[in-house]
Write a structure and sequence with these properties.
Helix content is 64%, strand content 12%. The N terminus is likely disordered. Helix 5 runs antiparallel to helix 7. The protein is rod-shaped, with a radius of gyration of 36 Å. The longest helix is centred in the middle third of the chain and has 42 residues. It has a 6-stranded mixed sheet with strand order 4-5-3-6-7-8, sandwiched between helices. A two-stranded antiparallel ribbon has the order 1-2. It is an alpha+beta fold and 415 residues long.
Length: 415
Amino acid sequence: MAVLEPLHAPTLFFTTIVVMATAAGIMTFVGLTQRTYRGFWWWVWAQWFNLAGAVCTLYRHEHPALFALSVLLALQWPITMLSGMRRFYVRSELPVPPWGDQVVLVGGFLWWLVVWSHAPDDAGGRVASFTMSSIAGYAYACWMVWSIREWRESPHLKAFLLFMALGVVVQIPRLLEGIRLWGVQVPDPNTFVQQPFLSLTLTVAVIFAVYMGLLLTYERTEQDLRESQRQLRLMVDFDMLTQLPNRRHFQEMAQQTVRLSPPGACALMLFDIDGFKHLNEVHGHAAGDTALRLVSGVARSMLRGRDLVGRLGGDQFIALLPDTTPQDALHVATRMARLVHDKQQERGSNRETVGLSVGIIQVQEQETMDHAIHRATEAVAEAKRQGAGRAVVADVDTQGAATVTTVQAFKPVRS
């Protein structure tokens, strides 16, 4: 503190006012020109109120009422900032409701007002009572910010929490000095009230507050941007009705799986819903959507974690089964068809039940996924020619043409 004594206190205080005005102006400009969130304008008003309190302090001798107003405006800062935090992190449950903030602020101000009214010339008492109220406000705000669950993941919120804690610590020497001089006649009360150290601390606090307000806003913007990108990626890669990968995304994943698997170790199973068009025409698209969700749900429940399943479009679905032979895939298709039938029977609907037609192939070495899907589609077409509710296992001959090796009709009985 002695190092700061040569500083001219009025000049330093005027500089602090200029910094406050600049900080409040920057916050207002950002709020008017950039995207902000709930609570941001509370932080803006906290800076303007702080500035108004400093201006009132300059004219406290001419108008004693401004002295009391300056104290109230100085005490409001941590509470107003906390009010913004409540709205910025609206999903966090804080231990004290919002009206508790006002109780802390009004209670601290009334405590100072009582001391000032009792002994207007007691500079030590005024400083001690004001510092007590200020420490109470900072400590209360620190406790509330600690209760915001996001502070554990946000480095900026951690920094704000640390700042609130430092706001308590740096005022302790001033509190002790005020208590020591309580009731003692101070030769120069103005020097006591306007210490250069206090002005410097206030300047740093204002700059930090603006910096943290902007950082928290941009952090939220970045989080929203990442979430938007995730949702867009989800919409691009997945079918929203069935929550399965769409054709493009399935082909990307399937091609990678085939590349990492031994040659000829993957079975590809393509299946579509028998009578889907009739179901849509007779019972409406809602019934068709129900059938699509039923089949996709059954497929997800039947397949292993490393298997891939997707929707090609319309009523066509596809699954890639690594380390699976066509005959094993045929057993999977049989159980899947039975489960689809059983679930429709359990619902007891008056609508006619739908079945599956399945085409199964073994993905050949060096075969593209487009060509494999084409062969599986031909197998499904053959299954439909054989009759509804059938599975066809197709192989390739020496010339690369598809050849049917197995035809199996599904028996809709409970497994």
